[in-house]
Amino acid sequence: MAPLLQLKHVVKRFGGLLATNDVSFDVEEGEVVFIIGPNGAGKTTLFNLISGYVTADSGEILYRGHNIVGLKPYQTTRLGIGRTFQIVKPLPSLTVRENVMLGSFLHAHSRAEAGRKADEVLAFLGLDKRADQLASGLPLAQRKMLEVARALATGAKLLLLDEVMAGLNPTESAEVVTLLRKLKDFGVTAVGGVEHIMRVVMALASRVVVMDQGGKLAEGSPQAVVHDPRVVEAYLGSKYQKGGAPT
Amino acid sequence: MAALQAILNGVLVGGIYALIAMGMALVFGVMRLVNFAHGAFLMVGMYAAYFGYTLFKINPYWGFGLVGAALFILGMAVYWLLVRRVMGQSDFLQILLTEGIALCLVGGAQLLFTGDYRSISLPLADRTATWGPLNFNVAYVVSFVIAVLAVTSMYLYMKYTEMGRAIRGVAQNRGVAPLMGIRVQWISGISFAFGVACAGAAGALLLPIFYVNPTIGSPYNLKSFVIVVLGGMGSVEGAALGGLILGVTEGLTAYYWSDSYTQVVDFVLFLAVLLLRPQGLFGKKAP
Amino acid sequence: MSRSGLVSSAIFFGLLLSLPLWLKDAYLQQIVFRIVIFAILGMAWNLVGGYAGQLSLGHVAYFGIGAYSVALFHEAFDWNPWLGTLAGVVLACLAALLIGSLTFRLRGPYFVLSTIAAAEILRLLALNLSFTHGAIGMIAPGFFEEPNGDRKTYYAALPLLGVAFALTAWTHRSRFGYYLRAIRENEDTAMAVGINPAVEKLKALLFSAALVAAAGALYAGVFQFIGPDSVLAIDLSVQMALIAMLGGAATVWGPIVGAVVLTVAAEGLKAYLERAHLFFYGLLLVVVVLFLPGGLVSIVKQRWFRRTAARAQAA
To answer: What is the value of ipTM here, to two decimals?
Structure first.
């Protein structure tokens, strides 16, 4: 079966800056893939390219075999590509449920149906108790969950999670991990972007793609990548070289 | 030859436009705020000059500086009491606020001075000089000269004084400025006050030439928008050049077509630039 | 709609429908008529400015199109004002498509300025073109024959108010309304959930323009004399925004509350200060923006939400 998502030699320049330098990799359905790279490595640009906020200068991005380069973000969403942002932006004047309904409205035929679907997603993510609270009142971790809920509610089959762990303490991160595990059962393929390899990544990811300055540095299983000398040199520093465990 | 005359008049008027627009460009450059009350402040300056002349016999050309100073203080007050509170909020609210301020100013003027058209007659204004085939209305020329001097001094001030550098610093990078010890709010207030002062002082320059009435400001509001967009939002030099371009374009429109179409041309030009070349003729960033 | 909402609407429209029976004073009737028109205008603007968050200060363009259509088609082709109104609505929608597709490409102050520009271009055209008779203005035919022409026109205005109200109430609860609000908050986020902002904004503008044009046509039929300064002045655009903001943007009752408060206050003010209403509008606008951006309705809503949140916390 063809991979769900395929990037083939994708290039993107912003003026003189080469933000995405000939990046190619595949994502199979049901996988959990993490894209690793510090700020500026090009993760967000990659997410923008896939979801359509930015158009590739050259190369192909195939979703279910169809080239989606040039599509607008609302078009990729309608195809099943969901996306969360690094800086979460819930609609503060709407309740949690209403925020999620924004997503479920995409395929629902009535407000009632949208509400039901939203409740389903909220229950799945453990946010159902806060359904009637204003989104502005949520703490950061819940707001991130809300973003994910909203994206799921659109019926996304491929979920792009940009820096979903950023700003979370270990307890909250653990919740996210549990969520990511559940996604697989929900039929959703997840691609996450994180700044550095963490224990979570090691545990969850079926595959990892390491980026450096816009280009793909390495790819493979987390175990393999962590021992790749190029990666070690670029990112992991002395802790790893001394054989220490990742944090 | 008559076309040349039209161009000349356009240049003269354009110098004054440059002064007006420069104020708006400054405010936008530093605060990212489009001051919809800009024209209203021009009107206030015009009335101030009017009463300065009729009550205290202060010639608006000498009183130019006084009017500028008075409007500077007014601008500071308006910033401190009102505008400061919407900085950092949505464009929506900021624009509505300045629109509200404009209405207060225009409405206040209507209340205090009624809608009557008033004018002063300086002996200077009745004189015309000739240079070859071209005629100069002396008042226009004097206004032009003073406006150019004002614009140039502002430009030099921005470039060479510490305050000027601080202002440009905030305009270039509002986020970084505090790290360099610049008090952004203070600079915003000063810039706003400067902007208002430009408008008001320009009003003093217009008094010998035009009638004053509470609604006199709104066409200048529009012209400032056009000029600032033409010159590239936030670019003070651009506003100066844009002023001249608009002045000449209007002059030619009045000559070849009709006087009443100059406003239409203003708007069409405005839309055309916004849609076709949003960074303006000289601007760097696209909106 | 919620039960309390239905009850309030029933009472409200009942009052309006029965008005000529219990309010005999002609002066007061005129004020109510003006409130009705302003409420229609406020609700129409609210779709674009309140729900979608697009600060259009050029809505008067559609008002003018409606008004001038009635006058022009009557003068040129001897059309009755009903047909003229229909033509006005169609023309306004076409104008909305054109203006919207151009202006919605712009953001922030550029968008606002471009809407002002569009309306002012129309005003200047009306002022300068010969067939609109320039500053002299035009005469428009009344909708009904005397006697009781005014009362009949009032009854003609009420269905329009009903349409505006129903449209707003529907928008508020529908996917369309949620989508508009998403666009207002953040267009990028809106696109992330599958919304095409350009299309939704245009839809809102079309509804809005149609309502405003119909109101303009009504105005022409009642006052029977229109000119560039009465039906195409930017003041009216600002007033529409003020009505919606004062009462509460993106709410169903907000514009109605705003229309009532503004009209009554302006009338009351006229008794003391003849020329003060422009200043008064400015002052209101400043006060609303600084201290009550959610409008008068928000005072009620805040209390309701505090109670609900308290209940949720306790649960």
So the answer is: 0.88
